[in-house]
Amino acid sequence: MSASSSVAIQRIRSVAELREWRGPAGDVGFVPTMGALHDGHLALVERAVRDNEGAIASIFVNPAQFGPNEDYRAYPRDEERDLALLERAGCHSVFLPSVAEMYPPGDDMRVVPGDIASRLEGAARPGHFAGVCTIVAKLFGMVRPTRAYFGQKDFQQLRVLQTMVRSLALDVRVVPCPIVRAADGLALSSRNAYLGADERARALALSGGLLAAAKAWVQGERDATALRRTVEAVAHQAGSLEYVSVADPVTLREVAGRAERAVISLACRVGNARLLDNVLLGMTLDELAEL
Ligand code: AMP
User: Fold this and answer.
1) Residues near ligand 1 (Cβ within 6 A)
2) Set 41, 92, 128, 236: catalytic member
């Protein structure tokens, strides 16, 4: 078989088919996504393929994690393109449920996250993490993965889901994966599709600001206020900054004074896109994986 020929990816649309595919044995790596795939998603898929006997991605734009004035309807969808990319990345199967399959008649239960979900994105998007936790808990129950792969790009989501797995004693290993960036530094995101050329150029100030803070950190800066101001001084050029946070990576509480470790995260509206980015300082993703 030549390197370019790949086995056709198996498309699974119902929970019944999914249970049949899963069977009782073997380790399975799972990558939940909302589609509009890019190299950030594909890096998670490649890792899942490498680490497990079976690899499955899901594509589901989950209405429950969007607020009433958010972009649920406008969210980019291109199933055929996504399937070709997954197939090329060596993904064995993909779960493509309908809204009715994920929220069937009789569905009447939600996972309600606690303190870790209360600030930053949780404060900006009421109900968002309850939507995320509920859908991921359902997907875990359906796929029963050995390992599940999540990007550092959505740092708080990663911590909320790690906390859910621990709190509910779910039998799955959460594997955090690094942020994949464009060559110029912009964090890849499905929502970058909303950016015009000028906005795309301005958005570079977000990774630019975080990079400036990371450099200051390497030079010994540990004061949380100074780090936040370093980011803001550059990142404000991107658009309307919603927040720049210097928080403890484990609790996500804001650091007052000196930081021994930190996640600096930001949200910014650039045109029609609401963009997130972050940098982890004084702690590695491997250390985070062990929490
Ligand atoms: P989404 O489709 O936006 O729900 O994202 C699905 C998964 O891909 C989540 O675990 C994200 O954190 C991850 N992800 C999104 N963008 C990136 C990126 N640039 N680098 C790494 N992972 C990412």
Assistant:
1) 33-34, 40-41, 43-44, 150-151, 153-154, 177, 179-180, 187-190
2) 41
Active site residue 41: yes
Domain extent, residue 203, equals 190-289
Question: Of 177, 207, 228, which residue is a domain's last?
Answer: 177
CATH number at residue 197: 3.30.1300.10
Considering the domain architecture, whether residues 23 and 96 belong to the same structural domain is answered as: yes
Q: What is the pLDDT of residues 69-103, one digit of tens each?
A: 999 999 999 999 999 999 999 999 999 999 999 99
At residue 46's C-alpha, the angle toward residues 44 and 52, to 5°, is: 95
The verdict on 170 and 206 lying in the same domain is no
What the block records as the tokens of 90 is: 């060596």
DSSP string covering 217-283: HHTT--BHHHHHHHHHHHHTTTSEEEEEEEE-TTT-PBP-SB-SSEEEEEEEEETTEEEEEEEEESS
Q: Are 20 and 155 found together in one domain?
A: yes
Distance from Cα 274 to the centre of ligand 1, integer Å: 14
pLDDT in tens, 45-76: 999 999 999 999 999 999 999 999 999 999 99
Give a yes or no: residue 185 inside a domain: no
The length of the chain in residues reads 291
| 49 shares its domain with 130 | yes
Indicate whether 3 belongs to any domain.
no
Q: Is the pLDDT of residue 210 over 60?
A: yes
